Amino acid sequence: MNNLTQKVRNIGISAHIDSGKTTLTERFLYFTKKIHRIHEVKGKDGVGATMDSMELEKERGITIASAATYCLWKNHEINIIDTPGHVDFTIEVERALRVLDGAILVLCSVGGVQSQSITVDQQMKRYQVPCIAFVNKCDRSGADPFRVINQLREKLNHNAVAIQIPIGLEADLEGVIDLITMKAVYFDGEFGDVIREEEIPDSLMETAVEKREELIDAASVFSDELTEAVIEETEISETLLTAAIRKGTIQRKLTPVVMGSAYKNKGIQLVLDAANQFLPSPIEVDNQALNLDNNEEPLHLSGKKEDPLVALAFKLEDGQFGQLTYIRVYQGDIKKGDTCINVRTGKKVKIGRIVRMHADQMEDVEKIEAGYIGALFGVDCVSGDTFAGPGLNVSMTSMHIPEPVISLSIKAKDNASESNMAKALNRFTKEDPTFNTFVSKETGETIISGMGELHLEVYIERMRREYKAEIITGEPSVAYRETITCSTPFDYVHKKQTGGSGQYGRVAGYMEPLEEDSFVFENKVTGGSIPTQFISACEKGFISCLEKGPWMKYPVTGIKIVINDGAAHSVDSSEMAFQAAARGAFLQAYFKAQPVLHEPIMKVVIETPAEFQGNVMGSLNQRRGMIIGSHDVGQITAIEAQVPLSEMFGYSTTLRSMTQGKAQFSMEFFTYRQVPKSVLESIEKKNEKKTRTGT
Amino acid sequence: MLKKQLILQDPLSFLGYETIDTDKKGNFGAVISRAGVGKTAFLVQIAISSMLKDKNVLHISIQDPVDKVNLWYKEMFLNLTHQHDSKQSKQLWDSLLSKRFIMTFETESFDFSKLIARIDELISQNIFAPQLIILDGLSLDNSMQSALNRLKEYSRQNKFTIWFSVRTHRHQSDDPVSVLRELGGGDASLFNMITQLVPDKDKIQVKRLSIDREITDRPPLLIDPSTMMIKETKNH
């Protein structure tokens, strides 16, 4: 392992679906000699890209699970995490960004900043990850990297600046001009591995000079020396310019843009150069933990290997050798045979086998030092756990985990499948916090829930393939929620006398709607009309009603309960009595508070050739979609709409047939909105039928 | 109730354009000013007022992405309703969204024939039937005379009103009307609602102009630059 932490880069590759993340990673591995042959995503050789190691990934040509690898480039060690582009697997991106120090934002030179690029950018902002942008697919018809740079500025608010310009575009793409060295760079040989540097062609000199000036102008904000050199009109050295760009990038105030074509092997080596030059090393990133001994105050982590260990388990994977736990070490080091503490459980953890990952291959190592990513075998923990050295009680801030929005009932076809299904579900829920499973109390069915149709589809397919579990699936249903719309008082007495000591509790107050999707309980009881020891029982009673609403049996959210009066009996009052009184009070007021049903609304973005845009909009209208707008970019129209999730099942097939497979769509959760009356009736009927038939 | 209160703040009524605006004869309106004075904000207020009156608004923006246009509406609506109950305002906003359609074009991919084809498609496929169109960010010049006349005819046939933002430049005449007359190829009747935004100390004056002269029977409106909302009527 390379001990020079300054020469380490932990980077992620993130982008919209089909922007070429995996193709780019494949080239990285090839040029860094980690692999000796390039295999394409969905390539004709049927091998698939190295990072798409899962059978299903190779077949579908999508990345499902983020994969980690590392490579060496010009004396720098680059740890790379290739992440999925589809929003259904967003947790993989969250996990990756949480532990990375920098990222390469890949953008399509035709599609530009697409919907998922915006989501990924927000995730980068959340974790303060500096990035460089790579405008890919410059060989494609309609390529315009400068339009993409403008979109980076306008749509994502990045201070984006080109550090290269292309030599030719579309089919004529030959190479790029490096605006720092002011050299034309060509990529010769079958796989573009022979780099040829030439003088800038005369035809491009003017543009190159103009764009270099723009670059110097943007970078000079971060360097007084550079500003002085500009003012004094002295020669600007490569080192000076590179240092200024690096400073701006690390501060997240500048986004250097490189360009090329991963598929055509043009410009890739310069992307690796840019990662080395501009993205931070682990010691340049201010990592913080929460000090649990001091009211969760942020605690700066030194990044030094001599200090006590702080490491985060950010991803779990169950394989043939047991549980594999991916960790990032922030401080200290973790060695084979060491003992550390799992801060969440307080239990000691003995470190056994340590490996470094290269897609699905692994290499045994003796230790992982601060700044590195690796994996441990046989450690009992969950995703998000912090491991710390003795005497340290700190926790890394937790990752943002979105709520599942779609669920599906599943049933095993036979006994053998049933036990295999249980094993698979156990593993998947442990690995993926956005994938949940439970058994419905009413129907006895196993319900799985996740982030989208594709998310659940992939897990069902994996159960079939990896666990030989034959599964019958029910109709998907969405995560409806109940809420109330007006303030309503309650005053309920729970009284029971059936021999022995009785039960008595009176609870009075009111319930009112909340704008947020939360629950608030407020105690305004004065004069001890409800003794203090029973207040928490009241709260428990109310909370127990929220899990399943009295009206449509969906969870109740956005509600505030205020109790302001009540009564107790010196002998007959108990926690149980007050819990029952609270439940009674809830039922008494709930229907008067005019409950409504809310459904998840998705933000849907469809990119379609302009000729199909009318049909696509029509299809969204049919699905109760509200079209927010359309954006014409060349021959492509991007349509943005808000559509109820319940109407989006099977939409990918509809869209494919409607547009001859030329359109693509992405969808992510947007908000909850009230279900219209006409739809409500059909949901009620469906639920009634379900209850009657017990299915 | 809230809707009614907000309708009372209609900028077109303040300017005395409400009768012209409802005659459905393919009117052209222009908000004219130099860059950065508040044309988009003013147009968005006109759009919101129309949506409050249950009219369908098609907002066409050249260059700005859909999200940015959407943000303008959100901001202006928040400014308009900040003194009212937030829950009611949110409900009203949700109900208004179906009355608006945003269509944006990159400058280089915009042309009038494409625009007409797009609107035709929206109407013929029952996706959205606009009653008011806002055309913002288009750099109008003399070469567009015939296209503008074609658009005028199209708006007459379909009975909708189009409001344009017209940016004047330093090299152009200080008289906005002459700028518009030039655009119409000397045809004074192309734009029948003309509003000029003029910075005036810490406020922005909204002047109603006719193709011949400034109409002085109404005092100009004022816009508060901090919120870009119509603030008060200046008494002369």
Task: Describe the protein's architecture and organization.
The complex is a heterodimer of chains A (695) and B (236). Chain A is α+β, with helices and mostly antiparallel strands and 695 residues long. Helix content of chain A is 28%, strand content 32%. In chain A, the strands form eight sheets. Chain A has an eight-stranded antiparallel sheet. In chain A, strands 2-3-1-4-5-11-6 form a seven-stranded mixed sheet, sandwiched between helices. In chain A, strands 25, 26, 27, 28 and 29 form a five-stranded antiparallel sheet that branches. The radius of gyration of chain A is 29 Å and the shape is globular. The mean pLDDT of chain A is 84. Chain B is an alpha/beta fold and 236 residues long. Chain B has a single domain (2-233), classed as 3-Layer(aba) Sandwich (Rossmann fold). Chain B has a nine-stranded mixed sheet, sandwiched between helices. The mean pLDDT of chain B is 81. Chains A and B meet through helix 5, helix 14, strand 36 and strand 37 of A and helix 5, helix 6, strand 3 and helix 7 of B.
Average pLDDT metric of chain B: 81
**What share of the residues of chain B lie within helices?**
25-40%
Structural class of chain A: alpha+beta
Strand order of the largest sheet of chain A: 18-17-23-14-15-22-19-20
SSE-based structural type of chain B: alpha/beta
